Amino acid sequence: MKDSQNENRKKSYKPRRDNDEESFDRKKTVRGAGKRTSSIKRSSSAEGKNSSSVKKSSSYGSGRQSAKRGASVVRRGTAVGGKRTPNTPSNNDGTTRLNKYISNAGICSRRDADKLIEAGAVSVNGEVVTSMGYKVKPGDVVSYGGQILRSETKRYFLLNKPKGFITTLDDPQERQTVMQLMHGCCRERIYPVGRLDKNTTGLLLFTNDGDLAKRLTHPSSKVYKIYQVECDRAVSREDMQQMLDGIELEDGFIAVDDVQYQDGGKDRRIVGVALHSGKNRIVRRIFEHFGYDVHKLDRCVFAGLTKKDLPRGRYRELTEQEVGYLKMI
Fold it and tell me: What pLDDT digit, counting tens, does each position of 293-303 carry?
């Protein structure tokens, strides 16, 4: 009799699923990544009823995506307590792979460093090295382009770019560049991640982390961005719906994740646009496709980073939490 009762208990018992990992991922999401910025405010209840013809994309807002990305990191190798375990064991002998050493010096990503090594453009202790697996030992002198490379501390800065500055390291025409705004921020050699047009304002990331810069600018990364767009005339709901459905441009198909009027449509010349595409001048080209002239374009959100407490023309260094979030992308 007791055996049959025990057997029934085993059948009726269902293990309780642990949700600790999911809650942990959500806590790790960078603050502001899942919140909508003030640049794109929801329409009032009255306006919402009138604008029901414009579909809302379910992908709008990066909080859900951030949680998913965080979950994938946990599955790949997050240790107890949220500390991430390395994918490969560290070198206890103090050596560093040559491509990583070049990347740490702020020259390029490790993938591009492999190309430099293969081309014979890098030397160690005066001898050209073309071996992909070469390891730099403490005291070795690594040279590229006639200069000695030194491994640098990784630095990450966010600039609220003003109008009238071009995104380049140096300009032969001696125009104002974003590097002039970053002068004196650190001793390391940093460079912009991606670019903003001369007349486009908003968030621009700077770093000497070649691997991260490569990942954020690669089309497959689909970094989430939000722009505030001011046009020469009111933007119609029909055009907004077509932006959501997708249009054909000269370089292929493109669809935005979301587009809405700002402040409930008080001024329908101003809209907020959310998208993942990293194509050149994509926002301006979308509106030009419909015959609009973009008077102002401002990037309000970049990869979960916002302009909060960052005045125009100023920069700040990213927190460890923000850097960790970027590396999850």
Answer: 999 999 999 99
